[in-house]
Structure formats: structure tokens, C-alpha cells
Amino acid sequence: MLRGKFITFEGGEGAGKTTQIKRLAQWLTAQGRQVTTTREPGGSAGAEQIRSLLVNGPADRWSASTEALLHFAARRDHLEKTVIPALEAGHWVLCDRFVDSTMAYQGYGHQLGREIIEQLQTIVVADFLPDFTVIMDIDPASGLGRAGERAGGEDRYESMALEFHQRLRAGFLDIAARDPERCAVIDADGAIDDIAVQIRELAAQRLSLDQT
To answer: Side by side, which strands form the sheet with 132-137?
Structure first.
């Protein structure tokens, strides 16, 4: 059985990742591919428990280092229990956030720096990286406005200062610039349908897919 492809979606708060993951999943399924959608932090029973610690509570609940460690602990469980088994079963895995978010949020946003995140990534993930990464780029103020309209809580990161989110955006753009073969930046301010077409076309080009 052929291994599936691993596609990740990244971006700041309110960028529309969840909507676009659903659109791409529908298109891939229509092509006859088996698709698994998942998220980080979370995506497995243990990782979902850690997620509640990270996305709820006051903004100053954790230090940057503690946050990074929690994210990588959740990630290891997610990989072992969900992502790797699905890929080995031939599924295409679409994930809402992965290692780039930890680099952007903790490395850039919290100014922990790239080195410590890279060290943790080497320990926990080794050379396991997505086949293709979509980075949804949006002005932080606009994205936070969108995010504030959502229901359901989990607003710890949204409550952080605008300056944090500005550093976060710069971080994602730097990540994309450092790895252009894997990453593609999409303007998240466009119409939902137009964005979906852009992502589908990019995925087809990067992963040699037939768009018919």
C-alpha cells in the first residue's frame, strides 16, 4: 500500500484554516482518496487533554518554554496514535497546525528563538515533515476580529497582545521564506471559494495530482 501524503495548514488566529481543510478534504475524497483530518494541539486522546491546558486559561498561564514542551508532548502522542498510522494505511492526512505553529507561536511570538524549537523538533519529530504546507496569511487585527466572532471559548492565544500576533505573522512568513519548496503562502483575506481553488491548484502542482 502506498503511503499517503501529509498536508498541514498554518497561520494566525482567524485565518480560515478549518474551512479550507474541509474544502480540500472534500475535493480529495471526490477523487477517491481516503482522507483523515486532524488538528494540533490535539488529534489523539492524550493530545486533546494537553490541548485543554494550552488553549484555556489566562494568557500568562505558562512560560514560553513550558508551552513549547507541552506542544511537543501532545505532538508526539498525535504522531504515534493518529498521523503515522493513517499515512501508513494510505490515507491523506490534513492537519490544522504542526511544527511550524510551535516555531511561530513560541519561537517568534513569545521570542523563545529558533534554536530551542529546532532542538525539540529534532528530538520529537526527527526528519518527519509535511509533504506540503499551506500558510494562511492574514493581518493580525483582521484575523483576531474574525476569531472573536467564533463561539466555543479556547481563546487563550487570542487574548494575547497584538504585538505578539504581529511577531507571529512575521514568523510564519519567515518560515515560508526559509522552506519555499514545502510551504506556500496564501492571502487569507480573499473569498473562501477563490482561496479553495488556489489551494487545490497548489496542492495539485506540488504533489503531482490530477485535477480532473
So the answer is: 35-39, 92-96, 6-11, 132-137, 183-187
Does residue 63 carry a pLDDT above 60?
yes
Are the C-beta atoms of residues 104 and 172 closer than 8 Å to each other?
yes
Q: All domains of the chain, ordered by start, with CATH?
A: 6-207 (3.40.50.300)
CA distance 80 to 90: 16
Q: How many other C-beta atoms can be found within 10 angstroms of the C-beta atom of residue 135?
A: 23
Question: DSSP readout, 143-179?
Answer: HHHHHHT--S---TTTTS-HHHHHHHHHHHHHHHHH-
pLDDT tens-digit map of 98-109:
999 999 999 999
**Type of residue at 188:** A
User: Does residue 157 contact residue 13 with C-beta atoms inside 8 Å?
Assistant: yes
The answer, as to whether pTM is greater than 0.70, is yes
State mean pLDDT over 50-77.
Answer: 96
